[in-house]
Model the fold of this input.
Amino acid sequence: MRILYYDCFAGISGDMHLAALLDLGVPEEYLLKELAKLGLANEYQFLVRRDERGGICGNRVEILSICEIDEGKQRHYGEIREIIKKSKLTEYVRDLSLAMFTRLAESEAKIHGTTIEEVHFHEVGAIDSIIDIVGAAVCLDYLKPDKILSSKIELGGGFVECAHGILPVPVPAVLELLSGVPVTSGKVMKETTTPTGAVILAENVNAFADKIDFVIEKTGYGLGKRILEIPNALRVLWGRKQSAEENYILEINIDDMNPEYFPYVEEELFSCGALDVFKTPIIMKKGRPAVKLSVLAREKDLESLTEIVFRETTAIGLRKFPVEKVKLERHVEEINTVFGLLRVKFSSYQGKVIKYKPEYEDCKKLAKQNHVSIGSIQAEVCRIIENRNRP
Done:
């Protein structure tokens, strides 16, 4: 499992976020090439340089406006939405960018008592914030983390001057976006988390936890503009962790049901989300032979699976307990053999492939087409992969 972790000890802004992900390894050339698909390249200059804050070296990103869209006017939500929809960005980047802008517009509309279509973004409608948000989507699409985590978020303190006048820090939009999220404040009396930074976390973070429970592989730092009493930096960590899911086991002992019913019960359970169904022969009280029916399930499917058990079996009770399912990272590749194309599933542990297996149905199909044994197909796959792995 690939993990991206935001350490927001000094908050987060859109430019700090871009700088940190570039420092983590997203190529600047790739980011600029994707951003050019917005069709706004004549409106801004994108600058990246190395700098230092409080003894920490990292990237500093500046997005300079070189073409005002209208004197004193900023884009509103509808205009930004149309720019993104009409762009040549990938579907994932378009959808994520729109999701972040929509969430931001909804928070602004709620605060100011208007609709999202009537929201004028002021600072957020400026070119730098558009690049910050779309750039965030581009970088996340490049990294493709399996899970995104964050620490508590430092919000800062004091007051800040913006288009709406002088507002307390954190500004209302930040509080609205981070509702239900663990935060801290007061390390410095400056704005440390901006609405742009807040919406990036609110839309993308899967869980908030200060405890780090994974193997760290890389670290990146994105530096803020101000010099503060603490290092003004966003730290991002890239790591790996063996995949684990929390599932549940349902167990039912059955000694009085026609065994012909079991295949039907299994089909019903699988159709409603069961991850696995298996049967174990057991001996119950008074020496009666029976079957222990076990169902591996996600929490969200427990209610429907319990209903099937009680409806389709003779059981009048069941046991339920949580289990942790640990699994290897997996990916599928198509391999071209002398017999034809087939899929092979590769399994990895700590980033290293340790086993592979050709898909049985593909092997079966090619064996029939070529009038050879399934073993011949599998042997050919092994030969190809072992040759590929030789230095």
Remarks:
- The chain has a mean pLDDT of 91.
- The CA atoms of residues 9 and 307 lie 47 Å apart.
